[in-house]
Amino acid sequence: MRTTVDIDDQLLLYAKQQAVQQGCTLKQVLEDALRDFFAHQSLPHEPVRLETFSGAGLKPGVNLDNGRSLNDIMDGY
């Protein structure tokens, strides 16, 4: 998508220098910077409330550490 933004002259110059040093485009430097910024942001979220049930525990043969085995059990194998 094409857009127009006002960027501080020194910041833009630094980004252009980084692009030359990395052998990539200014677009790639800016996209990578935005991805990195958003990857390190914590998004507000509601706490998760887990319901617990009483009982005898797991059925015999169920291993919660084995994903393949759990899938087989859920698929009826």
Short structural description:
The protein has helices spanning 9-22, 26-39, 67-74. It has 77 residues and is mainly alpha-helical.
| Major sheet | none
Number of strands: 0
Distance N terminus to C terminus? 48 Å
Model regions low in confidence, pLDDT < 50 over at least 5 residues: none
- Whole-angstrom Rg: 25 Å
**Number of helical segments?**
3
Structural class: mainly alpha
Structural shape: elongated
Taken in chain order, the helices and strands follow as HHH
Mean pLDDT: 89
Please tag this protein with its features.
single chain, 77 residues, mainly alpha, 3 helices, 47% helix, elongated
Question: How would you explain this protein's 3D organization?
Answer:
- With 77 residues, this protein is mainly α.
- Helices cover 47% and strands 0% of the residues.
- It is built from three helices and no strands.
- The mean pLDDT is 89.
